[in-house]
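Thread: Newbie trying to understand structure tokens

Hi all, I'm a second-year student working on a class project, and my supervisor (Dr. K.) asked me to get a predicted structure for one chain before our next meeting. I've only ever worked with sequences, so writing a 3D structure as a token string is new to me. If someone could post the tokens and maybe explain what I'm looking at, I'd be very grateful. Here's the chain:
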Amino acid sequence: MTAPVRGNAMRGDAVRQSLASFRREREADWKAFEALLARVEKRAPRTLSEEELLSLPLLYRSALSSLSVARATSLDNALVGYLEALSLRGYFYLYGARRGLRQRLADFFLHDWPEAIRDLWRETLASVALMVIGIGAGAWLVASDKSWFGAIIPPGLAGGRGPDTSAELLRGMLYDGDNGFLSGFAAYLFTHNVQVAILAFALGFAFAVPTVLLMLFNGCMIGALFQVYWSKGLGMELGGWLAIHGTSELFAIALAGAAGMRIGTSIAFPGELTRMAAAARAGRIAANAMVGVSVMLLFAGLLEGIGRQTITSDVTRYGIGGGMLVLWIGYFYLFRAVRHGDR
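---
Reply by user tm_fold:
Sure, no problem. This is what the structure looks like when written as tokens:
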């Protein structure tokens, strides 16, 4: 019985010596790697010198090599666990996503949002076309029968004004910042358009049918109002009043409609994917577009709130509205930012 006991003791001593030798040879690298990771996790990579930054991947590979040896030779389990945790920290720092808030915002505005809008270009054209059809339909209905104005625009909002209102009163509404009718109409139209944007996106899952109807109705409201002013010779003046904020606002509505249509058509025609998978894929693009739509509506609200009361020149109104439209088109369709690391 003495020989086996002595043999086991000798093997135990050999394992301990091997473990001690393994630690002596490599522990300095583990501690150095752990210290560097602790510094960059708590602060930022810029706190490291160039030499320290270059050493990070080398120390990471050294930790992986040590872990491989520790597992293969069945060394101390505590050491294996320590090396696994250290290697995992190194992996997440070197290869994981470490974007801060500013980087995420920059990526969204430089890449994610405009790329989503460009991907929706077909649906955007369809959405714009539906609103144009709605504008034409609203104007035609009011021109053919004045009673349609009250049916399209709520009587409480119109305040008794409509196709029979005098041109002088209608003109005064366009250039008086404190006027109740167009002030109320502007506030209502903005709130209405925000609701349309949300609903056009949210109801797109119903095969895009509600989205199509919302785009048409939104156009009808504008067309009905235009017909009233156009019939009094004030169509261009109303266009300037609306353009200052309407180019951003209506473009945002068109994009929201496009996002809803993408989801609806993906569900209706999923192709080789399941309906859920098609909806999920479309939803990622549509969600990026809708986050941006809220930004556009915020800009439109600021322009409407400030411009309607302080700017009375038709040329300036059209200039601001046209400039904003050019800005959005250039940003979405012409500007191409290079992603970090792309060539």
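A couple of things are worth pointing out once you decode it. The chain has two domains: 2-98, 104-334. The mean pLDDT is 83. Feel free to ask follow-ups in this thread.
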